[in-house]
Amino acid sequence: MIGTATRYDIRFSTVLITDANFALAATLPGLPTPRPAGSAESYVAANLDPTKTYYFALKTVDDRANVSKLSNVVVVTWPTTGVDIAPGPTWLSPAWPNPARLAVRLTFAVSYDGPIQVDAFDIAGQHVRTLEARWHRAGGGDLAWDLRDDAGRSVPSGVYLVRARLNDRVLTSRVCVIR
To answer: What predicted TM-score, i.e. pTM, was given to this entire model?
Structure first.
């Protein structure tokens, strides 16, 4: 509730935007300078593909370089009928925060409906924890790991790999745990 907004950072993506993947989303050009608090403002995002669903999110920077929390995420879709839309890419974000003490988060997207399997392994390749094993609809998702093993014990300091089997891809993300 203090400070004056000096800059907007509006991002868009074809997958759900979260704190973990905000920096990976595309920026919008030509954003207006913030007006005084309480003023109505608008921005038109041009040249979007009407066959895609877009997610938009905003962070605001004030005159002391403080960055706001992630805004509510706006979803924009256009109605389509009889169109076979190609799915988006399958991906896994880097773990965040990294290094971590208490927990990490990751985001992902899958191109089509199907099973996903996400496991954590220690650096020697020993299975530590199953994070997800379920059916997932096409689109984005969030993962959280509380840095505990399958028995509920905190994992020791070290390097861990999160392996995600998403659609027909196997992707990994490294996690450094500091206790």
So the answer is: 0.53
